[in-house]
Specification:
Blueprint (H helix, E strand, L loop, with lengths): L1 H34 L6 H21 L10 H16 L5 H23 L4 H21 L9 E2 L5 E2 L3 E2 L3 H23 L2 H11 L1 H6 L4 H27 L1 E2 L1 H4 L1 H14 L6 H15 L6 H15 L5 H9 L4
Helix pairs in contact: 2-6, 2-9, 2-11, 2-12, 3-4, 3-5, 3-9, 4-9, 6-9, 7-9, 11-12
Length: 324
């Protein structure tokens, strides 16, 4: 009995150490984001958090589920349109408008997941891309999306009837709460029994099937959860920038979020946040370069693939031998 206890103790101690490290990093992240708007333009920070949440949603699917989607912008963009339309045309309050966008994204995730999840590898990726292109053309032709002009002047309104989001600082705290809720949801999903099954499926799908797990059911659930978080990011972004355009639903948006995830560190908790901050910063601060920004992004992507194959946070995680 004592031998068994001694053999388990180091593992339990390491697990507690990892939990404490992650908890400390989350506290540091919250502290950083709490003081950041007093030194950095709040709109820029809100853009980073929206795209970080979007990247976290893809990372949940790709990094922890092993499923590469080329069409994740469909959920982000359509949620943005639905949020904008319900807020502008139907007078929904911000929380209800975002909820409407999230519900539509979740339903789309369920439909796409049921149709695509039985395919593997590049076939799955290409099917998701095909669905996303269908959503793009729907957004281009549908009468309520505004066509190439998109939805503009989306009202921010008052959340819960008393939180006026007209102020950037007030809206910043709301976006911060939404972002942290999404981030913690990813952590909870990954560290739940459901997440353990996903890890087993990612490691060896045939063995997971032989053990009695319903692989298709778990993959569809993961797809829906990922689409839901992408919808939350898209709806929040529409309220922040009061705008929903074809760019949100275009395939290039899917490639950008893949870039954020890979650069930051696929399969890590903080990697998508670092990747989103890096890519959005390049787009903002190198905007004077025009289309050359894409060349710079491509060069960084190639550099990361060659030198930092695990991404920035992934490399740090390996050096520290701790999950980050």
């Amino acid at each position: 009995m004592s031998d068994t206890t001694n053999s388990l103790s180091p593992g339990k101690s390491a697990s507690n150490g990892n939990t404490r490290l992650l908890f400390g990093l989350v506290i540091a992240l919250i502290a950083l984001l709490a003081v950041a708007p007093f030194f950095v333009y709040p709109l820029f920070l809100m853009k980073v958090m929206c795209f970080a949440l979007f990247a976290c949603s893809l990372n949940l699917l790709l990094g922890f589920g092993g499923l590469l989607s080329f069409g994740h912008a469909a959920f982000f963009g359509m949620a943005s349109y639905v949020t904008g339309y319900t807020a502008k045309a139907w007078g929904f309050t911000p929380e209800l408008a975002i909820l409407a966008g999230v519900v539509v994204a979740a339903l789309m995730g369920l439909l796409f997941g049921l149709l695509a999840i039985r395919r593997h590898g590049i076939y799955f990726s290409m099917i998701t891309l095909a669905f996303a292109q269908m959503v793009f053309f729907f957004a281009l032709q549908a009468p309520f999306t505004g066509g190439e002009d998109g939805l503009q002047a989306i009202p921010r309104g008052q959340m819960f009837g008393f939180i006026d989001l007209a102020s950037d600082m007030t809206l910043y705290w709301v976006v911060l709460v939404i972002f942290l809720a999404g981030f913690l949801a990813v952590y909870r999903i990954v560290n739940s029994p459901f997440g353990e099954v996903l890890a087993a499926i990612r490691g060896n799908e045939a063995r997971a099937t032989s053990l009695g797990y319903d692989v298709v059911h778990h993959k569809v659930m993961l797809f829906v959860l990922s689409a839901t978080l992408a919808g939350l990011a898209g709806g929040t972004k529409a309220i922040v920038f009061q705008l929903a355009t074809l760019t949100d639903v275009n395939w290039t948006m899917s490639s950008e979020v893949i870039l954020m995830t890979l650069v930051g560190g696929m399969g890590t908790f903080f990697g998508p946040i670092v990747g989103a901050a890096l890519v959005v910063s390049m787009q903002n601060y190198l905007s004077h370069l025009g289309s050359w920004v894409l060349v710079v992004q491509g060069a960084i992507f190639v550099l990361c693939v060659l030198v930092f194959r695990a991404g920035i946070v992934g490399v740090l995680s390996r050096w520290l031998k701790r999950p980050l």
